[in-house]
Fold each of these.
Amino acid sequence: MKLVFCGTPEFGVPTLEAVIAAGHEVALVVTQPDRAAGRRIACPLLALWSAAGALDTWYAGDSGPLALWQAWSDDVRGDALDGGHFFPEEAPERTAEALERFFTS
């Protein structure tokens, strides 16, 4: 899986190392110095999360998960998908539909 990783060095490095060790390709790493320098993600960005998870609740004060990504990119799309912690496994058809819509738009 190809990923964009966002995190601060002190907390993000162990997680980033685990993501790489798991065999995922990291296309871009975004850190707080990028934000301070005014750098933003230039390509369209798709954010998907589990509707059964807590992200909508955790980030309700920030206008939801998409609003967090809009701070980093001008072209953010996404939605909560039915399923649990790992929704691509629990709802593969819905995940594939979301990815197809994103990549063909």
Note: Strands lie at 2-6, 25-30, 45-50, 76-81.
Amino acid sequence: MKNNTGAMNTNSRLWIIEYIIEPGPGFSVAKLLDLEVLVMGGDCGRTIDEYKALLGAAGLALSRTIPTKIGPAMMECIMEKIEKPEEFP
């Protein structure tokens, strides 16, 4: 993610299309895929809060999440606002 941030400017957008694991015990395709990936590859899916933490560590912020009718969600990511130090006269 940090490589992406280095190539972005303040007007750039990074789009991530991924399944987001919903909280709670109910069934979802994302949870089924998470279990499959965990068993087969040792990795796991992420919740929205985990995506926010991952993006924040790279200097990005989640601008909006758009659900799709086919399963994965589209996440729009922007550069975090960096406060500039005050100029000395």
Note: Residues 29-41 form the longest helix (13 residues).
Amino acid sequence: MPDFLSAITTIMIGFYAGSLLTKGMVLVPFWRRMPPAEFYRLHKEVGPSLFAILRRLQRSLSSYQLSPQPSRAKARLKEQSQPLFVWSR
């Protein structure tokens, strides 16, 4: 089960990072080359759908981070013999 959760986490973070990189490396330079009037017209048309996609990715990633998985990781750390930090001995 932890392998499955790790795979899902990796996929979700990859999608989110990919969307942010695409926005920053492709869309922003494209938008900067546009005349202001064209940018504002396009922003009114495309902006809500772009926001909806990024909002869904952010919510799914945030809701997964709030899931009880960190408590399982904490339990595994307690089972290990060595402390996490040197000063916690």
Note: Helices lie at 2-33, 36-65, 69-79.
Amino acid sequence: MNHPKDSHLNTIALAETALTQISTHGQPADPKSFELWYRFATGKSGLLSAAINSRLERSGTLTRKVTLIISNRSTTPTATWSAIACCGS
């Protein structure tokens, strides 16, 4: 069983990784960028990781436009509703 403090520390580490990626790639630290890089940091979406890694291997950088396209393509209504159901009310 996970201790609440372990979960807290794990999410802090993921958030720090997301912020590092944002800084490294010159992205704005707005909620949409943070969400994208946080999901990338979790490693739970192979498709998201593949899209970002592929783009970085090809061009060495990510533009804001490209990150928005990747973000929009990797966000599904099901995932959004699952997050709401999990954390809502």
Note: The two ends are 24 Å apart (CA to CA).
